[in-house]
User: What shape does this take?
Amino acid sequence: MNQRAFWGLVQREWRLAMRRKSEVLTGVFFFVVVAALFPLGIGPEMDTLRRIAPGVLWIGALLASMLALQRLFEHDWRDGTLEQMLLSPVPLPLLTAAKMLAHWGLSGVPLVLLAPVLGLQFDLPPEALGTLVLALALGTPVLSCIGAIGAALTLGVRGGGVLLSLLVLPLFVPVLVFGAGAVEAQVSGLGAQAHLSILAAMLLIAIPCAPFACSAALRIALDA
Amino acid sequence: MVDLQVSQVVCERGARPLFAPVSFSLGAGQALQLEGANGRGKTTLLRVLCGLATAHGGEVRWQGAPMAQVRADFHRQMAYLGHALALKEELSALENLCTDAALAGLELSVAQAREALSRMGLRGREHLPLRVLSQGQKRRTALARVMTRRAPLWILDEPFVALDAQAVEHLCRLLGHHVAQGGALLFTSHQPVALPLPGGGFCAVEHLTLEPHP
Assistant: This one.
């Protein structure tokens, strides 16, 4: 029963995204454009570009994943689907976990796949590109987990979008530090092992904890 | 088996009690119509009974146990239709029913969903995206969703809104059928409602009026 509900929700999110493609593509194009503007603005000094590349790509990914966050529960809340999710005999944390997985699949995975292409613009060496992909693959699900809690907390609040950014961006800092740090460490020859381990540890904490926090926030948001 | 006991429930909005404490019980084969002026708190009370909002006093029991202990079991046996229809505009009526059943952890075949929709008079419109349907047709889809839940207790907030005369009559028959089969019904409506029973005659509808707080 629980499995059916989990995959049923993931499938529904996927189907909805395919019918409102513009929402998914906005985040992806945002990422591409932000990452493409930096080399144009800074000029073709390879050393500078290589140095800023990890930070720029990570901040781009951070902001792009923020874009889709505001709508994570907004539609479901407006049309009453969220009420039905709360009234389902299936545990709510499982359903919120499905929403997080769908958010990551639709807004995180495209970034992971695009990052190496964009990394070429910054003249990143091949081994650094591999690290970048690995760091993003470990880091972006953490962003989806933390972001979902923020989206649930700001649900129904007027000006929730700005509040969401203020709430969530500071919490993204550790992911940014270790994510960008991993690529830098790889470029400087230190090896990215330590950074990637810490990112993986964050992910392992976020996966079991975030759905419960998110569910509690949703219950509060609807109890009005 | 439906056994809902409500005793002395109070709901507040901004520290102001909405209505005088409410007590009633609802069992299998019973229909209860909740009445009260606009803004009296009918929807709030229904949300409290479903477990979407918390009461500020009183107690709700399901099969003798406090609601907090038996919530999952209660939700398995209850179908709720609120003001928001819980339908996705981008999906077709059929897809809406199937995904909703999945969210509730139920198995629903396409044939069953199709049958529920045609019972609500939506035959031939199963595959249209919901945004092209009219308000009344959307509401019919939402009512079809309630039926596919196979839940003995139906809690419906203004189920007759936006339906045409024929659909109202049809819905009354379906509700009467549900009650006759041992289901229970709790709904709000401003109109007097007669629920015809399948064997002839009408189902006795109890009325509960929310009084203003003294």
Notes: The first helix of chain A runs from residue 2 to 19.
